[in-house]
Amino acid sequence: MDDTPDIPRVAKLLADVARTRIVWTLIDGSVRAAGELAYQAGISSQSCSAHLMKLVHGGLLAVEAQGRHRYFRIANAEVACMIESMAALASGTEPGLPQCLPSTRSSTEAFMRARTCYDHLAGEIAVSILASMQKARWLRRKDAELVATRLGEHQLRALGVDFDSARDERRVFARPCADLTQRRPHLGGALGAHMLNLYIDQSWLVRSPKSRLVSVTPKGNEMFRKLLELA
Hints:
There is one protein chain. The protein is built from 11 helices and 11 strands. The protein has 231 residues and is of the alpha+beta class. The termini are far apart. Mean pLDDT is 87; it is low at 93-99. This is Helix-turn-helix domain-containing protein. It comes from Paraburkholderia guartelaensis. Residues 1-94 form the HTH arsR-type domain.
């Protein structure tokens, strides 16, 4: 019996440039109409429709119908993590210089510092936070995932993280997610998503309405400084 995972099926789905552009447009966790995705991919609506159906049937995208219109999003966090990891691998070996960075220097610096990766925080700040949490023994590695220590659970609750909800989600609780620009992991999984919600709800970060970028507020600068000094 051959129990080899069907990796070629997934690889074939992402081997097409148009389909890659579609999934990369959605990596921010957004929900977008087919027409917008066709424009972003630089293809006709008819061609985009065919690509979208392949991605939906292949399990990479999910579709939602609203009246006569259909809207598409990344199927789940596991798919988003795979895509971001592949993007990091495809960007080469030199840290901080992936080809998909914004065109201006100021935008590039902001992108590298803090942005979203599907439903969690990515970039320099996120990588440093995960490193600090591991050094302070809030989190420890368990195989390919991360688990909270007793100290970590206590501290995360004190910080305001909805720990029980994160633990009860039907997905990986916490995992290292390859960072596109830093070549070191940031925090993914349910815990990563709940921590991003905390940052937004408590005004540490402000989302950009048209991109993955997030801006750090003065309060956020102070709170992130404290997180980075855990150990």
